[in-house]
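> call design_seq(struct)
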C-alpha cells in the first residue's frame, strides 16, 4: 500500500460521472475505511487506532459531534463504534506522511499556493514549528521559544489588543479552549471568532430566543424512541453516518422518518448497516417514509404552511393537535403566532417550496399525528439569509405540540466539529454573557474586557480594512473555510503576522501575513504525556454529553507539543511570568485546568470526578430536563412571528448551494470520490436539474464558469463540469471550498451573521478557453 503523499495534483480531466446511489454504507463503506487507514497509517497503526476509536478507554472521534451510546441508558457500544468517515478522519490524523524541513526546503511558497486543498492536506503532518520571514520564499524551521517570542512581540507591539483576532476551529479540547479564551481575554480582547460563526450560529440565535438555550434538547435515547424524526437540511449518510444507526434503531421501534432536502441523498433513502446481517447481505433499511424535495431556502415557507394546517385542524377538533395545557403553562406568544398563520398564500408557498400542496398536507399530517417528534437539522437550514426565522419556525411547531422536554421528542441541531459545542461552553465566543466574565474575574483575580468582539465575518472585514493586524488560529483553515475567498486572502495578506496552530498543512499556511508561523500540535488520537504523567482531555458532543478522550497513538513527531502547552507557554510570554493565572502549573497537570473549569463554567461542578465516569456526564438543560425556559426574555418557551420569505432568483439564474462531498472533512479533502452522488476523480462539478440545463442552453458535461451576482458586482469561479442531476428545480450544488469564492462576504444571515453558503444566485457561462 502507498503511504507516500501524492506528488501529482488533481486533474479534473480524469473526472468520471456515474449514476447516483440509492442507499448508503454497507460493505463498500467498510472496505473504503480499511483501505484509507492502511494507505495512510500502515496495518498496525490502523488496527490500534480503530480499536480505540469511540471506546470508553480510547479517544473521541475527531470526525463529527454525533454522540456515542451511554451505559446509563442501558445501551451498549459496538466493538466498532465508528463509521467510514470517522475512520477516514483518524487515518488523516494518524497518517505516516510528513511535512518536514526537507519538504519546505524543496517547495517554495509560490508553488504551494498553486496546489489544491487536496494536495496540500495529503502531504501529511507538520513535524516542527516553521516560520516564513518577511519577503522569504520558503518556510524555515524555528525553535518553539523563538516562535513564542515572535508572537508575543507582535501582540505586545499593537496599539490595542483589539487589533488582534483569535480564531478557533471546533476540534480543540475543552481544556485547551478554556485556557485559550482565558489567554485572549487576559491579553485584553473578545475578538474570538470561531467556525461556529459559519456553522450553527443561526441555531444558537434562534434557540436562545425560543427555548432559552442555544443547544438541542434531546439525547440519543430520545432519538431511539421518537415516533417521527424530521431530518431537514442535513446529509447524515455522509456527515453524521453513525446517526443512520440511530435512525435504523428508531425505525425498528416503529418511527417514521420525514426527509426534507433538495437532493435525494443516498443516506436519507436507504441504509445498509455493516454491523448487522441484513445490512451486509440484505436490502438494508428504507429510511425516509416521506421525501419532500424542497427548493433551497423554501423551509420557512414549508414550516409556516405546516403551522397553518396544524392550527386549522386543531380548530376543527380542539385540543387534538395543539398541546393547550403546555402552551398555557409554559409558553409565550402563541396567539400572535397563530394570528400570523391564520391565512397563507398557497400559490406563493408552492412556489417557495417547489412542493405541491398535497405533499405539504401529507407532511403536516405526519407532524400532526406524531406523539413524539424530533427535529434534526444542519447546514441546509443555518446558512441562509432567513436561517434564524426558519429555525424559530421549527421551534414554534415543537412548542405548539408540546414536543420539548418529554421522552422521544425535541429539537436537535446536529453539530459539526467534534468539540464545537464544547468550545462554546468553555467561553470561545465573541459575546459571552456578563455572568461568565464575572466568574472569570472572580476566579482568577483579573478584569477581562466586556465589549463584544468580532465574529468571523467581522474579523475578515476588519483585516481587510486594516483594523485587524495579527491573526492567530487555534486549528482550522480560515483561508479556505470562509466566504469570498479572494477578499479573505487579501485580508489575511494584509496582516503583519498570521499564526496557525495546526496538525496538517493547509491553504491558510500559504495565504499568509508579512510574517507567518505554523505551530504544529498533537492531534486527538495521540498520546499526551506531561510532567505529572499521561493526560486526557474532555469534549462535549452534540447532545451535551461531556466525556474524556485519551490519545493512544505515538505522536507524529517528537517536536510536537499539545494545544494546552502552546497556550500556556505563549501566555507566559505575552502576559509576563508574574501574571495572576498560574499558566505553568496547568501545562503540567490538566486536572488543575479542570478544577478551574468547575469553578467558572455553569453546569461543570465537580468536573474532574464526573468526567471520569465511564460515559462522563450530561450538562444540565432546563428545557430538556424540566420544561423550563428561564433563559428566554419572557421566561417561557417563546413563539416567534416571522414574515414569509424565500430567496428570489431572477430569470436565467439558478440558486447554488455549496456542500460537502462524501470524501472530505470541511476543507480537508480525503479523496476524490463522492460515490453516493456518482462522482469520481474530480471535484469541480456543478449539479443542475436536467430541465434547468435545457432551459439555460447548457449541455450535460459542458465546462462552465460559475458567476455569482451580488449588489457589489460579479464573482467568478472558472471551469466546473455541468452534471445533470435530480436536484430540485431551479437549484444547483457545488462543493465547498472550491465554490467559496462565489459567496459574497456581505451575504449573511440576519441576526447570526453566518455566511449564506446555501443560496448563492449564479449564472452559468460556457467556459472560454484562453
Ligand atoms: N465526513 C464528514 N463529516 C462531517 C463534515 C465533513 O465535511 N465531512 N463536516 C462537519 C461539519 S463542521 C458540519 S457543520 C456538518 C455538516 O453536515 P451537513 O449539514 O449535512 O453538511 P452539508 O454538506 O453542508 O449538507 C447540507 C445538506 O443540506 C441540504 N440543503 C442545502 N440547502 C438546503 C435547504 O435550503 N433546505 C433543505 N431542507 N436542505 C438543504 C443539502 O442538499 C445537503 O444534503 O458535518 C460534520 N461532519
Ligand atoms: N461555502 C461553504 N463554506 C463553509 C461551509 C459550507 O457548508 N459551505 N461550512 C462551514 C462550516 S459548517 C464550518 S464548521 C467551517 C469549518 O472551518 P474550519 O474549522 O476552519 O476548517 P477545517 O477544514 O475543519 O479545518 C481543518 C484544519 O484544522 C487543522 N486541525 C485538524 N485537527 C486539529 C487539531 O486537533 N488541532 C489543531 N490545532 N488543528 C487541527 C488541520 O491543520 C486542518 O487543515 O467551514 C465553513 N465554511
Ligand atoms: Mo460546521
Amino acid at each position: 500500500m502507498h503511504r507516500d503523499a501524492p506528488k501529482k495534483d488533481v486533474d479534473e480531466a480524469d473526472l468520471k460521472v456515474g449514476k447516483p446511489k440509492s442507499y448508503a454504507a454497507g460493505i463498500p463503506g467498510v472496505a473504503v475505511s480499511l483501505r484509507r487507514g492502511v494507505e495512510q497509517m500502515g496495518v498496525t497503526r490502523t488496527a490500534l487506532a480503530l480499536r480505540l476509536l469511540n471506546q470508553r478507554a480510547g479517544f473521541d472521534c475527531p470526525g463529527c459531534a454525533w454522540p456515542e451510546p451511554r451505559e446509563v441508558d442501558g445501551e451498549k457500544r459496538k466493538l466498532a463504534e465508528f463509521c467510514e468517515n470517522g475512520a477516514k478522519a483518524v487515518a488523516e490524523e494518524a497518517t505516516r506522511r510528513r511535512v518536514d524541513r526537507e519538504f519546505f526546503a524543496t517547495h517554495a511558497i509560490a508553488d504551494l499556493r498553486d496546489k489544491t486543498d487536496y494536495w496540500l492536506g495529503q502531504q501529511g503532518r507538520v513535524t516542527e514549528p516553521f516560520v516564513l520571514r518577511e519577503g522569504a520564499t520558503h518556510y524555515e524551521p524555528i525553535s518553539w521559544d523563538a516562535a513564542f517570542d515572535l508572537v508575543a512581540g507582535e501582540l505586545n507591539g499593537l496599539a490595542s489588543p483589539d487589533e488582534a483576532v483569535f480564531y478557533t476551529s471546533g476540534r480543540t479540547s475543552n481544556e485547551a479552549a478554556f485556557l485559550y479564551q482565558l489567554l485572549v481575554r487576559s491579553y485584553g480582547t473578545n475578538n474570538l471568532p470561531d467556525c461556529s460563526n459559519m456553522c450553527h450560529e443561526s441555531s444558537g440565535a434562534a434557540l436562545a430566543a425560543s427555548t432559552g438555550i442555544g443547544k438541542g434538547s434531546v439525547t440519543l435515547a430520545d432519538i431511539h424512541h421518537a415516533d417521527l424524526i424530521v431530518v431537514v437540511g442535513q446529509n447524515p449518510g455522509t456527515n453524521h453516518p453513525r446517526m443512520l444507526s440511530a435512525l435504523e434503531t428508531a425505525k425498528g421501534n416503529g418511527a417514521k422518518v420525514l426527509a426534507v432536502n433538495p437532493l435525494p441523498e443516498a443516506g436519507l433513502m436507504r441504509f445498509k448497516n455493516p454491523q448487522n446481517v441484513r445490512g451486509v447481505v440484505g436490502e438494508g433499511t428504507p429510511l425516509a417514509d416521506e421525501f419532500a424535495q424542497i427548493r433551497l431556502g423554501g423551509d420557512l415557507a414549508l414550516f409556516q404552511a405546516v403551522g397553518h394546517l396544524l392550527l386549522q385542524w386543531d380548530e376543527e377538533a380542539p385540543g387534538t393537535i395543539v398541546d393547550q395545557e403546555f402552551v398555557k403553562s409554559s409558553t409565550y406568544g402563541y396567539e400572535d403566532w397563530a394570528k400570523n398563520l391564520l391565512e397563507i398564500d398557497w400559490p406563493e408557498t408552492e412556489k417557495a417550496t417547489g412542493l405541491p400542496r398535497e405533499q405539504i398536507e401529507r407532511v403536516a399530517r405526519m407532524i400532526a399525528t406524531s406523539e413524539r417528534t424530533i427535529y434534526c437539522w444542519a447546514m441546509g437550514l443555518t446558512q441562509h439569509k432567513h436561517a434564524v426565522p426558519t429555525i424559530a419556525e421549527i421551534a414554534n411547531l415543537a412548542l405548539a405540540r408540546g414536543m420539548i422536554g418529554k421522552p422521544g421528542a425535541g429539537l436537535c441541531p446536529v453539530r459539526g466539529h467534534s468539540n464545537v459545542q464544547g468550545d462554546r461552553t468553555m467561553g470561545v465566543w465573541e459575546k459571552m454573557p456578563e455572568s461568565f466574565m464575572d466568574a472569570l474575574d472572580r476566579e482568577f483575580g483579573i478584569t477581562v474586557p466586556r465589549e463584544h468582539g468580532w465574529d468571523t465575518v467581522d474579523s475578515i472585514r476588519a483585516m481587510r480594512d486594516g483594523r485587524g493586524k495579527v491573526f492567530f488560529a487555534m486549528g482550522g483553515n480560515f483561508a479556505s473555510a470562509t466566504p469570498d475567498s479572494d477578499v479573505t486572502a487579501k485580508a489575511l495578506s494584509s496582516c503583519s503576522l498570521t499564526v496557525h496552530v495546526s496538525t496538517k498543512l493547509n491553504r491558510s499556511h500559504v495565504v499568509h501575513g508579512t510574517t507567518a508561523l505554523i505551530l504544529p500540535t498533537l492531534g486527538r488520537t495521540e498520546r499526551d504525556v506531561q510532567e505529572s504523567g499521561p493526560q486526557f482531555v474532555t469534549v462535549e458532543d452534540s447532545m451535551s454529553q461531556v466525556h474524556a478522550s485519551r490519545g493512544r497513538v505515538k505522536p507524529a513527531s517528537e517536536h510536537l507539543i499539545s494545544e494546552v502547552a502552546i497556550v500556556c507557554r505563549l501566555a507566559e510570554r505575552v502576559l509576563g511570568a508574574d501574571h495572576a493565572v498560574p499558566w505553568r502549573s496547568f501545562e503540567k497537570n490538566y486536572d488543575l485546568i479542570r478544577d478551574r473549569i468547575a469553578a467558572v463554567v455553569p453546569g461543570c461542578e465537580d468536573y474532574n470526578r464526573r468526567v471520569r465516569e465511564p460515559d462522563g456526564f450530561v450538562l444540565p438543560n432546563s428545557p430538556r430536563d424540566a420544561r423550563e425556559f428561564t433563559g428566554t426574555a419572557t421566561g417561557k418557551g417563546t413563539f416567534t412571528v416571522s414574515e414569509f420569505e424565500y430567496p428570489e432568483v431572477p430569470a436565467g439564474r439558478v440558486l447554488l448551494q455549496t456542500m460537502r462531498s462524501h470524501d472530505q472533512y470541511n476543507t480537508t479533502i480525503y479523496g476524490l470520490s463522492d460515490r453516493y452522488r456518482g462522482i469520481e476523480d474530480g471535484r469541480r462539478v456543478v449539479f443542475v436539474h436536467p430541465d434547468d440545463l435545457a432551459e439555460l442552453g447548457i449541455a450535460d458535461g459542458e465546462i462552465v464558469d460559475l458567476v455569482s451576482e451580488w449588489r457589489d458586482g460579479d464573482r467568478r469561479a472558472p471551469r466546473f463540469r455541468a452534471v445533470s442531476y435530480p436536484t430540485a428545480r431551479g437549484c444547483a450544488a457545488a462543493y465547498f471550498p472550491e465554490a467559496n469564492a462565489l459567496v459574497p462576504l456581505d451575504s449573511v444571515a440576519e441576526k447570526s451573521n453566518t455566511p449564506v453558503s446555501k443560496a448563492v444566485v449564479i449564472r452559468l457561462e460556457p467556459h472560454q478557453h484562453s
